[in-house]
Amino acid sequence: MSDLTFTEEQLEAIEHDGNMVITACPGSGKTTVVVEKIRRIVPKLKPYQGVIGITFTVKASEELKKRCKKNAFDTRQSFFGTIDSFCLKEIVFPFISHLWGRAECDVKPVLKMSDAEEAELAGWDWGAEHFQNYEPVLQQWYHSGRIPMSAAGALAHHILSHSTACARYITARYTTVLIDEYQDSSLPQHELFLKLVSLGLTGIAVGDEDQAIYSFRKGNKEFIRQLINGDDFETFYILENHRCHPSISNYARRVISSDCELAPVEEIRVYRASRGGTVINLAGSISTSIESLKDRFDVDHNSDIAILVRAKRSLRKVAEGMTVRHRVYEDDPLSDIGGEYAGLCIALLHYRFDKQLTAESILLENLVALPSRDQSAILRRLIKNVRSCAIENLRVAIHSVVEKMLSDPIPHRVAEALEVVLGNPELLAKFHPLNQDEIQIMTLHKAKGLEFDIVFHLDLYEWAFPVKYPQNGWDSPAVYSDLEEDKNLHYVGITRARKACYLLTSQKRFNSRDQETRGKPSEFFSLPSLEGLYEQQ
Q1: Average pLDDT for 198-220
Q2: CB 490, CB 255: distance < 8 Å
Q3: Could you tell me the pTM of the whole model?
């Protein structure tokens, strides 16, 4: 039992034993509540049982597992990982042969199929009721040794629904399924969750529909709304923000809800400012203010400060204007290629320089089929060599892991991209752990789940954020790309700040063609509900 002190709303969620939805605002201690729930559930289980803990990213799953196992706590046979990892390791690979027979060759998950196959996949409706329409094609790909990652959830649901052995295994092994960031669930993930609950597992959905920002990945916050509005799940609200200064929380909440109740504050810590020039000049202005702001808000390190942008193309512009050390979180040649080979190279580069990562996390992140005990030992030995070998042997060490894990040589294009990264100190530096004297520069999407003492929120221009387009020429009314999701993304950006949040614009901006144009402030600045909640500088 934990010695932590919980609020009343946190304790109510922790002590509930049935199916539930936990809707939690930023900074509310959501992860602490989830960890405490798991640590109270597990001691009641049999030695061969566990819980399923599904997170949005591998990094989040590693953090959840680490916190659950704190002080040598035994989590029994619990699973911690992403939804794709769970589907492949616990359902697809062990049981797909029960439905489709043994494959004619080794089968591996594929992040990116051929262009023609990807186009075919993009046109499919992944709802369970339509699975029979594309099952023959998936079965054909399976027997050729490939399972597209985008099909993992739907395929897992199909197997669980039609394999008695699979259903028996899951219900004997697990008693509870918990899915975090439920507001970003796709249809197959939602249907799989409901299927697990229908088999008798206790279902816990954790999320916040105001932080739904991944519709481009087929995430849909309607699914968490269905759970909240239905009769089968009890909803618990954890709405006290313990992270942000109250004035920051007030401003962010009024972005979402114009009439929400405000917390009393003695000082405003949200600032709006406009400067001359472009975002490049803006970055220079930020650089000169860092030391004084650290003193003002009692910030220890530059790494506790972040500059957040809406568009990837803004990252380089900001970096160009910075005059202090910084770290830009942007794509590299390997990221541009994508796919399982490049992804594994990226993971191994991070593993080389970040001592917090484990060999097990590499296996988990790259979604390989469960290997035998001997194969696991060989893979772990090869992975550990990536960290211990001399830098001049790093390329060979990475190739050895990739070829063993994925059963094929690295494609020429990926090998060339790896050579570029290894030969470019600036590109290679991004895989090193963050230095305390580096300002962090990233997109709003990458900042999700992170927090900083001071946040500079940029790209707040009309047309750029919220994104809108001319409908039928410049003389006709413009249309927003997704106003509600952009508002959620703005909310996420603001609530990354603990002590101070600066909303900055410049008099000029770069358009999509990289041309300078007038930098008119975002419509977000015109929301009447925000009056009196910020200071103009």
Answers
A1: 94
A2: yes
A3: 0.90
